[in-house]
Specification:
heterodimer, A: 299 residues, alpha/beta, eight-stranded mixed β-sheet, 11 helices, 42% helix, B: 283 residues, two-stranded antiparallel ribbon, 10 helices, 12 strands, globular, Iron-sulfur protein NUBPL (chain A), ATP-dependent FeS chaperone activity (chain A), P-loop_NTPase (chain A), 4 iron, 4 sulfur cluster binding (chain A), ATP-binding (chain A)
Chain lengths: 299, 283
């Protein structure tokens, strides 16, 4: 019995075969489409000598990404050694890292047209803030931002680094897309405060990280509780810690730290002194141990 | 759907050949009335300020529009208790969401267009530019006294697009919001330069989160420092509009989508916003 006879006698089988054929064609089509799209996307290329790249991101502005990045990098630098940790400020519009790390000036250029990162507190640091003078705004559309991110990652002589900590701007836009598409990222911390508007935006940020396949290491709940210096009354000014816990749970991670709201943090940041150096006991609020164990896990 | 946003809204037909924003101002007086809320720095309270100003203007009998062009973190729907509302079209344009039955506060945000409110909007510049143009030209704003535009942090596609699209419209000016710390003031200083370069008038600077009064002992702690905003206003020779302290009741009102201005009429934060609104309207 030939196949056409079988098809005539078994209309349901024909239907199944036709459906199977078209499903198989759809699968092929989908695979071909994905392959074409992958060809047009930038390739992830690691930075020579850099072992791990950790993103500090949020989705929401003003939750303390730069503060956490700077202090985390300094704490990791103390553990791992002088100039083994880098800090990249990928916020081209509002670079806070130069202020927090007490650094200014233009980077030197060496052979291969590469910029030499500035060094302070044992870290190699690069920021748009070193390339744009004082009060000059960076008014750029997305394409320029993408180019700038390329320059700050690939055209910098980072040298051998155990970890590169990357501070990111708020949002889920060009900077994050460019970083995720062009660099192999080891993981990301999601920073938030307890307010619902912050948690909503942080959730979007975390969803975006999932979409671009960046592993989420954990959630950092910043500005959690304020203790009055006069009467020691605690105030959860921006809300309770529950929201951050739910956010972490929804993404299968933990809240790595609840950082208190302490006026000394802002004061020290403004004067370019990392809190973990001025008050070493504050290291307990940083997820450095987790980052370090991830580092040794992967090593 | 793209990113869960109704495709016809993004690529749909335009309703008129000229901007419906011509209906924004009073056709008789043609007085300028578009107010931008800018910062440069994230998390300083731009959306909070935009909402309180809108509610204050409404309280003094004005018809207000509130446009949220922060696509990555649209906070305005939540702050006004309007989450979950849907946008519909009418023959005159897309109908904004009204925060009240009297239709005196009209709101538009990407937040109303997302299928799932937790969906991130991961757009590059051209899509954001197209959406902003749509928000300004295809939304039926219907004869407003003021249109307040809340912006995201930075000076990127959204800001450039807004500036381009409002160039020919009656702009009153920009209100800059900062917190007192140096890292915030540094970004806002750049925003001042941005306003000067784009020719937008600076109505003044607000210093937000300026001090916290302990509810138990009334001790005031400057958690985020103090005075940075005022110093910048003096340095940049622009009006200093006022200081707003950290007020957990304001935070709570925003979390629950309740109007702080209407619920806490006697609060000094409400007074401060009334004062700021008066300074803006008389400028």
């Amino acid at each position: 019995m030939n196949s056409s006879t079988v098809l005539q006698r078994l209309p349901t089988l024909k239907y199944v075969l036709v459906r199977y054929a078209s499903a198989a064609q759809n699968q092929d089509l989908k695979k071909r489409q994905e392959a074409m799209m992958a060809r047009s996307l930038p390739k992830q290329v690691s930075i020579p000598g850099v072992n791990h790249i950790i993103l500090v991101s949020s989705g929401k502005g003003g939750v303390g990404k730069s503060t956490v990045s700077a202090n985390l990098a300094v704490a990791l630098g103390i553990e791992l050694g002088e100039r083994k940790v880098g800090l990249l400020d990928a916020d081209v519009f509002g670079p806070s890292i130069p202020t927090m790390m007490n650094l200014e000036g233009s980077p030197d250029i060496v052979e291969g047209n590469k910029m030499v990162p500035l060094v302070n507190y044992g870290l190699k640091v690069m920021s748009m803030g070193f390339l744009v003078p004082g009060s000059g705004p960076v008014v750029w559309r997305g394409l320029m931002v993408m180019q700038a991110i390329q320059d700050l990652t690939k055209n910098v002589k980072w040298g051998p680094l155990d970890i590169l900590v990357v501070d990111t701007p708020p949002g889920t836009g060009d900077t994050h897309l460019s970083l995720a598409q062009t660099l192999p990222l080891s993981g990301a911390l999601v920073v938030t405060t307890s307010q619902k508007v912050a948690l909503n935006a942080a959730r979007k940020g975390a969803q975006m990280l999932e979409k671009v396949k960046v592993p989420i290491i954990g959630v950092v709940n910043n500005m959690s509780t304020f203790i009055c210096s006069k009467c020691d009354t605690p105030s959860n000014i921006f809300g309770t810690n529950e929201g951050a816990q739910m956010l972490a749970k929804d993404f299968g991670v933990k809240v790595l730290s609840n950082i208190p709201l302490d006026p000394r943090i802002g004061e020290l940041s403004d004067t370019g002194q990392p809190v973990v150096l001025a008050h070493p006991e504050s290291k307990q609020f940083l997820p450095s141990t987790v980052c370090h164990s991830k580092d040794t896990e992967d090593a | 759907c793209e990113n869960g946003i109704a495709v016809d809204l993004l690529y749909g037909r335009k309703f008129s050949n000229h901007s419906t924003l011509l209906s924004v101002h009073n056709m008789d007086s043609k007085s300028p009335n578009i107010i931008l809320i800018l910062s440069g720095k994230g998390g300083v309270g731009k959306s909070t300020t935009a909402v309180q100003l809108a509610l204050t203007f409404r309280k003094i009998g004005k018809k207000v529009g509130l446009l949220d062009v922060d696509f990555c973190g649209p906070s305005i729907p939540r702050m006004l208790g309007l989450e979950g509302k849907s946008v519909f079209q009418s023959p005159r344009g897309w109908v904004p969401i009204y925060a009240d039955a009297e239709q005196t506060l009209a709101v538009m945000s990407i937040g109303f267009l997302l299928k799932n409110r937790d969906d991130p909007v991961i757009w590059r510049g051209p899509k954001k530019t197209a959406m902003i143009k749509l928000f300004l030209e295809d939304v039926y704003w219907d004869n407003l006294d003021y249109l307040i535009i809340d912006t995201p942090p930075g000076t990127s596609d959204e800001h450039i697009s807004v500036m381009e699209n409002i160039r020919s419209l009656p702009v009153l000016g920009a209100v800059l919001v900062t917190t007192p710390q140096a890292v915030a003031v540094g970004d806002v200083r750049r925003e001042v330069t941005f306003c000067r370069k784009t020719g937008i008038r600076i109505l003044g600077i607000i210093e937000n989160m300026s001090g916290f009064v302990c509810p138990t002992c009334a001790e005031c702690t400057n958690i985020f420092s103090k005075g940075g905003g005022e110093a910048l206003a003096i340095h940049a020779k622009v009006p200093f509009l006022g200081c707003i302290p950290i007020d957990p009741q304001l935070t709570q009102a925003l979390e629950s989508g309740v109007s702080f201005i209407d619920s806490f009429e006697g609060s000094n934060v409400t007074e401060t916003f009334k004062n700021i609104a008066a300074q803006i309207t008389s400028s």
